[in-house]
Sequence to fold (786 residues):
Amino acid sequence: MFNTIFKFLSKLFALGLLIVLAACSHVPAKQAANTQIIDLSAANLPAVAAEFVTTRTGEEHEHDEHQALPAKVSWRFWRDSQQITIERPQLGLGELWQRDGQELIHRKLYHQDQRAIEFQAGDLRMLDITPSWQKLALLLDSQLLDKLTAEEIEWTDGIPTREYQGKVADTKWHVVMRLDVALPALIEREHGEFSERTELLNAYPLKAAPWQPTPVNGYDVIDFADLGDKESDPFVIKVQAQMGHEHHH
Amino acid sequence: MKKTHPQKLAAVAVGAFGFTLSVAAVAHDHADRDHRDYHKPAQTSQVPTSGLEWFKAGEAAVLVNKRDVAQLRKAKNVILFVGDGMGVSTVTAARILEGQMAGRDGEFNRLGFEKFNNLAFSVTASANQQTSDSAPTATAMVAGIKTNDGAISVDQSINRTEPSAEVTAAKSVKTILERAEERGMSTGVVTTARFTHATPAVNYAHISNRDWEADSNLPAGATVKDIARQLLEFPYGDGLEVALGGGRSYFMPNTIADPEYPTQKGRRADGRDLTLEWTSQYNNSDYVWNKAQFDAVNPASTDHLLGLFERSHMRYEADRAQDAAGEPSLTEMTEKAIKILEKNRKGYYLMVEAGRIDHAHHAGNAYRALTDTVALSDAVKKAKQLTRDEDTLILVTADHSHVFTIAGYPSRGNPILGKTAVDGIATKDGLGLPYTTLTYANGPGWTGGLQRKEFNPANEGTVAAAYAGSKLRPDLTAVDTANPNYMQEATVPMSAETHAGEDVAIYADGPGAYLVRGTLEQNVIYHVMADALGMRK
Fold:
């Protein structure tokens, strides 16, 4: 039932976004002596906060399933070694991914209602939604990068980047990774009449982020598995009505 | 986590009359069993292969039923197995799946409880619902009354959100478990759902709203105790002897990290750690939260066992092996429970719930619903092995059904999770497309074709979705519908598949089981158990 949401997220993460890094970036304009190039396959990526905007044109057709996404979405991203948070402030929505040992715990956050829906590892498995932590943390599947042609590292205003281009399964990709923070500065993908562009607006060390995730400690957390037994809960009715449907195989 | 105390002296006075009766009963049972076995074609794994063999098998089944006279003696023990959401179609499909997974004839296979001698239909409508949720249906089974949606062992005159402890007490109905405790019997509840979930909760809690599982779920100013707290402050007898399931976070304060998931904390706002209170308030008690600890529990020296194996629901059986901390199976929990409870010479009452059949159906996932049903069958088999027919009444039933169907005209032996086929050739629908035997009348598996709508995150609403091609259904030709994660198609679009209102089955064996016949209101189950235990006034 929540496939659409997940698909949307995965598209945000793995597919499209574009980053315009430099102009608005908080990172120094010149190469700093201590700037490190991060191995994108590293187990622990730097703790960062970032702001992105995603724009789309056309309609996407994929396996007879379609996403009706807004033309432009701004969103924020926080990442540390155990937790990834995404918020779309203008919608009052958020996503939380937590790594706990070998398990992945996911919550969809409804800030206006101060409630959350939690997906246990088994729920994610049943829904065929088992993203790797690396994919969530990079906002991109590293296996996809492996299939693209990678250019040499370039330094621009002290920031190391690597550009990737290519075509995978009828989709044309253009990706720029910022290697100092291990985040995409730009993701562009096109297939048919559809195109999507996600760009990084700002990136900060996590401790220096000018904004923090909305506190969720007091939220009433509902299990995904319990939604079917909460047929009289107004919040659940509202959320379920909003979810739409997507059959997956 | 373990609290030990010198073993209490068990009751040792066994009257000579009782001993004689016992010996006689055993002798009779053995003789009868030998005779019955001779006529048990329904329990053989050999499939009849001719008209004559089918005829003889049917004739023999009637002879078995003629020979099985009613067991009129009182039951010492009662075990109530509940498959949450296990409608008749679920039982049938699980029977076929179990047989096919074992390489046998699935249609001829029988789940453990399907071999029971007594059967009835259970009418599941609640006091205010045609199709019910688990709270009133479970209340019906353990409290003997029909009540309203969401109600946990309180009558239908209560408001759904009644916050007052006094009003709730006035509306409360004593449960079979509470009456058993009053009589000095041992009691237990085992579930794969949260221990505070509706079906297990009805045994030991009284509250108007099933969702009030921890104090943080209660509305401001409420004086009624949350469900988890009611387990620890249980006022009857010496408290439950066995409490096994999930839902650990509802028993832990929100300041303490979970032992299995250190990034997560409990849900309790009152600061109480009910897991610690369990071991402090009971002698010879233990609290465990993983498989190794569970395996280490010695039933002979443990009188009160609390096991909470997940923060929320336990794993589906299909996913259980992947739990890092390890979880016991429903069969293992049932075995441990019986071995603790059977120490009491006054007998015991035990409810065992396969709580996640319901969840898998809600998610439109037949595979997990059916494999959890098979797990329930295994637990029933274990209970039968550990108990005696002459003193233990075992009931197996469901609280309600689901809109789950077995459709088309597949050949015998066609994979139950597969596409409908006759002699291996796929049957096509009116659009010329293959379809699965198992589908849902509603739920998330709706495919919708040209009518589909999709979630629009811009306004949290839905918009019409473009649709490639002209097909009204997906083409499943290349789809592996037996994949454990496959979501069966549904006719009506709903984010969660729903319960169904048709009757469910009650299977019964043991003393008092003869009372299970015909079409019974669901609350009759309580009265059958009470009658068998000699509680009827």
